[in-house]
Amino acid sequence: MMIASLLAGLGIVQLSFQLVNSAYRSVTWSAQTRDTLTRTGTLEQDVRVLQDAVKAHQDPTYLRALARCRGFVAVGERVVVASDAPETPPGENCKALRVP
User: Fold this and answer.
1) What is the pLDDT of residues 32-72, one digit of tens each?
2) Are 46 and 100 in contact (CB under 8 A)?
3) How high does pLDDT run on average in the chain?
4) Is 56 buried (19+), middle (13-18) or exposed (0-12) by CB count in 10 A?
5) CA dist., res. 100 & res. 46, Å (int)
6) Residue 30 pLDDT more than 80?
7) Domain locations in the chain as residue ranges
8) pTM of the full structure
């Protein structure tokens, strides 16, 4: 009878350990799943930004605007600069594109 009680006690301890371990793994798994989904969303957004950048670099209108941003002018244009214009390095008047 004593051995049966001892085995029943060990079974209860093992069952309790397994229940606590399962709960811990469930909470850990949920947190990791949430983190993974967040990271996946961020990476998908980065891919869209990069795809838009690739499309923009193949567009002649965008390339013309980028060249103008860098300080280039078209043939036949005159550059007029105000005498009190601030000194800005080339490319400072361009809108920065966030690339991951």
Assistant:
1) 999 999 999 999 999 998 898 888 888 888 888 888 877 78
2) yes
3) 86
4) middle
5) 6
6) yes
7) 2-69
8) 0.54
